[in-house]
Target: Small ribosomal subunit protein mS25
Amino acid sequence: MPFMHGTMPLRRTFYYLLQGKIKFRDDVQVFAMGFHRQPNEQQQGARDFVFWHWAQLQYKNPRVQLVKHIDVVITPFARAYLKDGREVLFDLEGMNREEIESRIAATLGKTELVAKREELMQIAKLNPADFGSKCKRQVRSLSMKLESLLTGLVSG
Model:
């Protein structure tokens, strides 16, 4: 397979996708980037960012539409469209991929506190040790069991 040579296998691993640092806030709906395939030295950072971080962005932000404008624009840019109709525009010329990543994460990304809180809420929701009358899962399964018992008694 041709994609198994060079850096392509590394970018296709699950571990690599988990290493993405940019998790967009909930109000980001669309994120678009414009760059060149054969950039000059000042525009290389945008192409490198797309090469190394685009798959991570897609994995970490499944509800955000990601758009690439390849060889359409003169200068590399990134634009985010927010839920309330506002746009956030970034000029990426002269920046390397680490600078682009840090700027986008600082402007559009969730803070570490918010991300940690969401992660803990997700863990608490999925905890299998939750049981009893106050647990949603337990109440639902009890009502289903009672319903099946009642229908069995009525039909028998």
